[in-house]
Amino acid sequence: MKKLSLKASCLCGGIQLRTHGYHRDVHNCHCIQCMKTHGHYAAYTNVQEQNVKFLKKRTLKWFRSSKRAKKGFCRKCGASLFFKVIGSNIVHIAAGMFNGPTKLKTKMNIFVKRKLDYYKLDNRLATFKRYPK
Fold it and tell me: Is the pTM here over 0.90, yes or no?
């Protein structure tokens, strides 16, 4: 975990936020939900929900993607920004939404059983069939 203060936004700027506090290093998720949401695997960090301050959120829309979770996206430009387990106080943020350097590192690949065949995994990273305990 790294203590950081970062700014993020969607493509059109309808959603702008600042995060502060401890950020988890990046996990690449290859599950079917991330593949369908992002069009490729998703790279997420996470922070405590209380450490997310919205500067603008007029275009933020939440989609209940399963019984367990919801995804946050921009209803104007379509950017997929967030993933949140219902009832959790953790918000997973797509790492590509940050403006500028993050100081975060990619640490692992998860749900690799769903990985498609057109790309290769970095064998220097930890790999898991599910989310590690």
Answer: yes
